[in-house]
Amino acid sequence: MTNLRYKWAPFLMYGQKLEYKKNATVYRQGEQGNGFYYLDRGGLKIILLSANGHERTIDYVPTGGLSGEHGAFKGPYVTSAITTSPSVLYFFSDEALSNICKDHPQAAVLFTNSQIYKVRLLAEIIAFQDCPVEQQMAHYLIRLYTVHENENVPIDQTSFARYIDTSRITVNKILQKWRQQGLIELSNRGAIRIADVEKIREIAYKTGELEGMSLWQ
Amino acid sequence: MVSPFETDVKWESFLKYGTRQFCKGKTIIYKQGTMGEGFYYLHKGLVKIISTTAKGNDRLLNIVVPGQIMGVQSMDRHTHFTTAVAVKNSVVYHFSCAQFQEMLKAQPELLSLFTQTVSQKLRILLFAINMKALTSEGQIASLLLNLCDDFKNYEVPLTQQDLADCAGLTRITVYKILKQWKESGIIEIKNRTFVIQKPELLRYPYRYTQTALTV
What we know:
The structure holds 2 protein chains of 2 kinds.
Chain A: E1 16-20, E2 25-27, E3 35-49, E4 55-61, E5 66-67, E6 80-93, H1 94-103, H2 106-128, H3 133-148, E7 152-153, H4 157-164, H5 168-180, E8 184-187, E9 191-194, H6 197-204
Antiparallel strand pairs in A: 1-6, 2-6, 3-4, 3-5, 3-6, 7-9, 8-9
Chain B: H1 6-12, E1 19-23, E2 28-30, E3 39-44, E4 47-52, E5 58-64, E6 69-70, E7 83-86, E8 90-95, H2 97-106, H3 110-131, H4 136-151, E9 155-156, H5 160-167, H6 171-183, E10 187-190, E11 193-196, H7 199-202, H8 205-214
Antiparallel strand pairs in B: 1-8, 2-7, 3-6, 3-8, 4-5, 4-7, 9-11, 10-11
C-alpha cells in the first residue's frame, strides 16, 4: 500500500472536492456505483455487512489512498465507507476517470493496482481467519501500523473488535495483557501506541509454528 | 461463436493478445507464493482456486469455468495469494502485464471490463469472509453463486462430478445436497445440468450454520 499512497494526487484536479463530517456515509454497500474516491484528509473505514446484518470493519483507508473503485463503471458498491473524522475527499466519476486515463495512460495501471491491493487485503483477512485471536490482533495492529506509518494507531477497542470480528471483551483482555507486558500503551483517547513493534510482529508471525505463514508475511 | 455469457464474449475479442497454453488435468497453473506475471483466461476445461491460510489449511475459494479470468491478483507484479489447479484438461490464454498494458492503450474500454472482473473477485472474497467456516452445503452454495453472479446466468455449466472434484467431496454428498435443494425448489435439474431458481435462498450464511447444527 505504501507504494500506492499519494500516487493519485497529480490527478486531483479532475475530481470533485467534497467535505464530510465525522461518521458520514460516503458510499453504501449495494448502492449503484457512480464513481470512486480519494481520501485527501481525515479517515475512512470500510464496512462489510452480511446478509444477517452482521457488521465487520475490513479496512481503514489511509490518507492518499483510493476507495470505492468497485463503484466505477456503474458497478454496485460491495462495501460501505464511513468517515472516522472530519474528512476531505475527491470524487471521480467515470467520465473523470476516462479523461485521466486519456491524458495520462499510466493512471490506468495505478487504478488497477489499487483495485488489486483491495483484493489482496481481503485474501489476507481470509488467510488469518483460522488463527488464534491474539495472533490476528497482532497481525492487524502491524498492518495498521504499516499502512499509517505511525506507531500511534488510531483505533478504539470497539472498532478493533469489529476489525477482528470478535467481542470487545476478548480484545480488551488481550490488550490489557500486552499493556502489562509493556508491548503497547493505551491512551484514553481511544488509540493504541505500539511500544515494542518487534514483539508484536513476533506474535503475529510465529513462522515456525504455522506452515502457511511464510505465504502471508 | 454464440456464448451464453456476456463476459465471455467481451474477453474473447482480446484473445489474440494472449498466449495459448494447454494444462493437463490435476496440474498447477500458478502457485501461491510465486511471483506472478500477468493473468489467465480459461478457454476450455475447469479450474479450482485454493488459498493456503496462515495456519496451513487449504481453503477452496472459487472455481473457474470457460469464459472467466483468473490470476488478476498478480497484475501488480507481486506474488500470487492463491493456487490455480486444472481439475480437467484445460486450455488457457496467458496475458503478461506488458501485454495487458498494451491492450489497455489500444482499447481503453478494457479498463471497465477489468474493473468488473476485479469487483467480482472482491465479491467472492467478501462472501468467503462472511461464510468463515463452511459446511459442504455452504461450500457448494458459494461456488454456484460465484459463478452465477459473474455470468448473470443461473444455468450452471457444471456436472455433479465437476462440483465434487472441485469441493473435494464425494459425488454422493453433492447428489444429496442437490436433491435437498431440488425438493425445496431452490434448483431445477435438467438433463445433466441444473438451473438455480431461487439464488436468494442460497445467499444466507445462516442456512448452513443451522444445517451444520442439525446434521
